[in-house]
Amino acid sequence: MTERGDQWITVEDAADILRLTTRQTNRYGTGPDARLHIKRVGRRVLYSRQDVEVLAEELNVTLRPTVAKPPKSELVPIGEVFETMNAMQLRLEQAALDVGRLQGLLEAQRQQIADSEAIRKKLQDVEAERDRLLQVQQRLDEAEAERDRLQQRVAQMEDERAPPQQQSLWNRLRGK
pLDDT at residue 1 above 50? Predict the structure, then answer.
C-alpha cells in the first residue's frame, strides 16, 4: 500500500477505535485483502487513521460493546523490589528466631515434664518406704509393750517365788 499524508496511529489505538482486539486489528491490516493501510517503522506497525475510521463506519462499531483491555503490566523499580525483599528477609529471619526460641521453650517444658515424672516416681518410692517404716515402728512399739508386760510378769513371778526374807534383828525390834 502506498504511503499517503494520513495520520498514523498504533495498533492499540486502532483497536480502541474499532472495538476489537489488537490481534483482530492486525488481521485487517495484513494479507492479500488488507482493508487498512499500514506503515512499518522498525518493528512497529502503524495504521492510517482515515482507513481505521472508514472501517469503523463499515463495521458499525458504535453498536458493538467495547473490548476489555488487558491491564498493562507495570515494572516495579528495582529499588522497591530490593527494599521489599530485604524487609521480607528480615521478617523471615525474625520468624526463624521466634521458631528457635519457641522450640527451646518447648524442649525445656518437655524436660520439666520428664523431671516432674521422675520426682513423682521418687515421691511414690519415698512414701512406700515411709509406710513400710511406719509398720516396722508399730511392730516395734508393740514388741516393746509386750517386752514391758513380760518384764513385769517376770518380776511378779520372781516376787511370788522368792522365799520371804528374814528381817534383820534390828528391823524386827522396831516393828518393821
Answer: no
